[in-house]
Amino acid sequence: MTKQSQKPITTQTPPQSSSIGGKISHNKGLYEEAIENQGYNIFIEKAIKCPCKSKGTDSALPSCSNCRGYGWVFINKVQTRGIVHSMNLKTEFKEWSETNLGNASLTIRDVNKIAFMDRITINDGETIHSQRLYPYHDKRRNEIYAAAIYDIVEMQELYLFDGSDNKLVLLQQDVDYVIRDNFVILDNKYISKNDFLGLHLSARYTHRPQYHVMDITRDVMVSQIRGFGINGDLDMPVNAMIRRSHYVVDEENLEGNLILDNSYLGDDMTGCKIKQPTNLTTTPISNAQVDLAWLDNSDNEAGYIVERSTNNKDYLQLSILAADVSTYSDTTVVASTSYFYRVIAFIADGSRSLYSNISGTTTPV
Ligand SMILES: [Zn+2]
Questions:
Q1: pLDDT per residue over 196-232, tens digit each?
Q2: Do 294 and 331 have their domain in common?
Q3: Residues with beta carbon < 5 A to ion ligand 1?
Q4: Assigned domain for 17 exists
Q5: The CATH number of the domain where 293 resides is what?
Q6: Domain limits at 236?
Q7: Ligand 1 centroid, distance to 263 Cα (angstroms)
Q8: Distance from the CA of 51 to the center of ligand 1, in angstroms?
Q9: Which long-range contacts (CB under 8 A, 24 or more apart) does 339-342 make?
Q10: What separation in Å is there between the alpha carbon of 62 and the centre of ligand 1?
């Protein structure tokens, strides 16, 4: 006979409540709270199959201005929150491969409907991509530019090919080129020096991690509510397997030209039910106070959330404010420090607007 442990029992599973008949009930509110609090800021874009087709094949047309041969068109960017877990669980050396690194699991609220190939962008993360660019001369705008696959957060290196016998030429940002979203726009001096077709660039830059939905592992999961006078079904969060877009298709738009935006939602309502605050300004009042002001553009907000960062990368929630508030004093700052702020509006169901502009300031000594 095994001797019973003498250790005291400090916790105990509570007895089954007879009133709920032992049924496990899912609490939607708790799931949604977890997504809201633990999740990343993400963008979801709907994937639409491009109707273009190369003659005699099933492939998309490389010259198609809607998809550039990708075969998919991404529309109507919506900002929401989602929990992303890495699925790279196998750590044995033989299992390591680029493809494994790209898998993740995504959990979002059931209001965010997703489908195969929808594009997910994690707005809080940063990752690196290297690609070639062959700039295109837009004669109408008199600009030389090249489109990168992703919106560029920071260009790390941009090299110009200057013949196979010469060293690559490292270009200087704001001197030789500027960045606009996913575009590298070269200085006009390159128009006179070179035929635009001859410019070959290599770019290494940081961007927001981007994924495609590969498999929806849990689509509509319904939890039943019975008892307490309630009878009904509850939609539970959606879970999907997503894969880094590098590893789905490493799509280089080698001609570096524009892809048409087929979104049919206007600029100021990119799928959001609420307009974002704009014109955020910050004023250091003293070494212990920064005042914020913004424009309240919505008439349906339940309130505003103010977020602060010291590196313009990792933002933390500073305060939740009531509706119609358009100023805030941050009295938790310290002297001689740089702070960045952004404000977001939310409505009663928890959905959020896009973020305001980011405004930064430095407190005096
Ligand atoms: Zn197409």
A1: 557 889 999 999 889 999 988 766 555 555 555 555 5
A2: yes
A3: 50, 52, 60, 64, 66-67
A4: no
A5: 2.60.40.10
A6: 28-125+210-248
A7: 15
A8: 6
A9: 339/282, 339/290, 339/308, 339/309, 339/310, 339/363, 340/308, 340/309, 340/310, 340/311, 340/312, 340/315, 341/280, 341/282, 341/290, 341/292, 341/306, 341/307, 341/308, 341/309, 342/280, 342/306, 342/307, 342/315
A10: 7
